[in-house]
């Protein structure tokens, strides 16, 4: 599958089958995140893989009860090790760096034939305590991964290029 096809097949899965995800697929997903670019090559990420059902259920509770969070057999907490570094343009680096890593992992999951949902709606302190993430770090996103129980139907609702692309000026 070429990259354009992987991107076109991507959708936010909100329903998962109970089938386990192959350990080799999880490793390839993690490797994709490890290879993502980061500001000054700082690689400020740590990935916590959660597969134990009791942990997934507690994370589901911390994600305001969203059913697909506990339903998926794999959750990857994408965490930052450096929340203070600012790039020369003044922006914090970690939200951008971890977004790259999460996007790479999401696309690898799709390439593996899996469904994925990037979740940013959760009570960070509850998940931090459960996973023993140090308070000097942030949990930026949760990747919810598994075999989707649904298929993408139709084209996603996206703005036309004419509304979002300009050349040489705004």
Q: What integer value in Å does the Rg equal?
A: 17 Å
Spell the H/E element sequence. HHEHHEHEHEH
Here the CATH topology equals: NADH Oxidase
Query: For the record, what CATH class applies?
Result: Alpha Beta
CATH architecture: 3-Layer(aba) Sandwich
In whole angstroms, the N-to-C terminal distance is: 35 Å
Which structural class do you get from the secondary structure elements?
alpha+beta
**Mean of residue pLDDT values:** 94
CATH superfamily: NADH Oxidase
Placed side by side, the strands forming the largest sheet appear as 1-2-4-3
Largest beta sheet, briefly?
Answer: 4 strands, antiparallel
Work out the count of structural domains. 1
Instruction: Find the count of extended strands (DSSP E, 2+ residues).
Output: 4
Give the count of helical stretches.
Answer: 7
What helical percentage do the residues reach? 25-40%
Shape: globular
> Low-confidence parts, pLDDT < 50 over ≥5 residues?
none
Strand residue percentage: 15-25%
């Amino acid at each position: 599958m070429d990259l354009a096809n992987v991107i076109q097949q991507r959708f936010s899965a909100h329903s998962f089958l109970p089938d386990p995800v192959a350990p080799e697929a999880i490793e390839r997903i993690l490797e994709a995140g490890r290879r993502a670019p980061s500001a000054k090559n700082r690689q400020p990420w740590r990935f916590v893989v959660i597969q134990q059902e009791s942990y997934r259920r507690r994370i589901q509770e911390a994600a305001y009860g969203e059913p697909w969070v506990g339903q998926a057999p794999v959750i990857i907490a994408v965490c930052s090790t450096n929340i203070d570094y600012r790039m020369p343009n003044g922006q914090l680096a970690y939200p951008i760096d971890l977004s790259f890593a999460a996007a790479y992992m999401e696309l690898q999951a799709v390439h593996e034939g899996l469904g994925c949902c990037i979740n940013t709606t959760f009570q960070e302190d509850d998940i931090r305590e459960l996973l023993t993430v140090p308070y000097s770090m942030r949990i930026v996103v949760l990747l919810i991964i598994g075999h989707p129980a649904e298929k993408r139907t139709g084209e996603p609702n996206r703005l036309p290029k004419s509304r979002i692309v300009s050349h040489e000026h705004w």
